[in-house]
Design goal:
The protein contains 13 helices and 19 strands. By secondary structure, it is α/β, with parallel strands linked by helices. It has 2 domains: 11-218, Alpha-Beta Barrel (TIM Barrel), CATH 3.20.20; 236-368, Lyase, Ornithine Decarboxylase, Chain A, domain 1, CATH 2.40.37.10.
């Protein structure tokens, strides 16, 4: 039989999360962000769960082609825009909307030969300091675009740096409003964190919202708020099985470098999962895991293909773990118990986004309803 580790993508959870986010978006339309191959889930796998969105937002032309090949005829937005002039030809052929964040992209558009003007989203750098025109140059960029026959409608957008934290978004919304004043065009401001935390403000919801990580059942402001607080469900479950059992004597060590030593006799299990599967090597002893649906913890270092888990809490819960017992590394156990992906991610000093995107190609993936 194949190695027992596998990942499951939950389509009903995707539909549920999209509905939760749409309910918060007021009258705004919803981009489903599917960059990075739908945050590691696979664009083809998530499409049916997210096709209720008003559009798809992504980065790569290849991803845009894949969405069109799935039969999507609605809007598709390139979040970083084009990278070279010939990209505009594919934008024309695939009817893509694209972000404009620098003068070079306006120059490309001015030289592009097309009979069908293109829809663009002009991006302001309102404080994130990644992509976008400085506020003082934003209106001039809008004027350049608006004068081009290659451009149809110009929409306006920005991206928040602190929507998930104490600083919040007021400093950026004020800058955006000031320098967009009286400019026509639809607006797009809100990412997942802004949509969840600041949805009461209609001006922040604007015309389009751009949820990404929240669609996939991870909390954008963890650990302040768990995913359950937002009413979201995990969309990816990574599961495996116990493939070995050990009984430790007091003083016995576990794994490379002997970073864990048993203080008393202890039963432990070995799981078919390791950093070659995308499970973070940095997860220390104590990283949460479910064995037979019971919460427990990892022991010692994560190896390439295996991790060790503490079976004492499982036995104390009345279970009898055996070789073949189900183990959930993140997501939903078959019993219904949930381990949010944010928890092992936090143990590794990272975020759920990275774990989703790092799922190794050797892990089989399937979908369920």
């Amino acid at each position: 039989m194949p190695r027992p580790i596998h990942a499951t993508i939950h389509l009903e959870a995707l539909k549920h999360n999209l509905a939760v986010l749409r309910a918060r978006a007021q009258d705004a339309r919803v981009w489903a962000v599917v960059k990075a191959n739908a945050y590691g889930h696979g664009i083809e796998r998530v499409f049916e769960g997210l096709r209720g969105a008003d559009g798809f937002a992504l980065l790569d032309l290849d991803e845009a082609q894949r969405v069109r090949d799935l039969g999507w005829r609605g809007p598709i937005l390139l979040l970083e825009g084009v990278f070279e002039p010939r990209d505009l030809e594919l934008c024309s052929r695939l009817d893509l909307w694209h972000t404009v964040h620098c003068d070079a992209q306006i120059d490309m558009l001015s030289r592009h030969k097309t009979q069908v003007p293109q829809r663009v989203f002009l991006k302001m750098n309102s404080g994130m300091n990644r992509l976008g025109f400085a506020p003082g140059r934003f209106r001039a960029a809008w004027s350049r675009l608006n004068a081009l026959p290659q451009v149809d409608e110009v929409s306006l957008m920005t991206h928040f740096s602190d929507a998930d934290g104490e600083r919040g978004i007021a400093h950026q919304t004020a800058v955006f409003a000031q320098h967009c004043q009286d400019l026509p065009g639809e607006r797009s401001l809100a990412n997942s964190a802004a949509l969840l935390r600041h949805h009461q403000d209609a001006s922040v919801m604007a015309d389009w919202v751009r949820p990404g990580i929240a669609l996939y059942g991870s909390s954008p402001d963890h650990p302040q708020n768990q995913v359950a607080h937002w009413g979201l469900r995990p969309t990816m479950s990574l599961r495996s099985q116990l493939i070995g059992l050990q009984t430790l004597a007091a003083g016995d060590s576990v794994g490379y470098a002997s970073t864990y030593r048993a203080a008393a006799p202890q039963r432990m299990g070995v799981v078919a999962c390791g950093y070659a599967d995308g499970y973070p090597r940095l997860c220390p002893t104590g990283t949460p895991v479910l064995v037979g649906g019971v919460p427990t913890r990892t022991l010692g270092r994560v190896s390439m293909d295996m991790i060790a888990v503490d079976l004492e809490p499982v036995i104390q819960a009345g279970a009898n773990p055996l070789v073949g017992t189900a183990v959930t590394l993140w997501g939903q156990d078959a019993s219904g118990a949930v381990l949010p992906i944010d928890e092992p991610a936090a143990a590794a000093g990272t975020i759920g986004y990275e774990l989703m995107c790092a799922l190794a190609t050797r892990v089989p993936v399937s979908t369920d309803a």
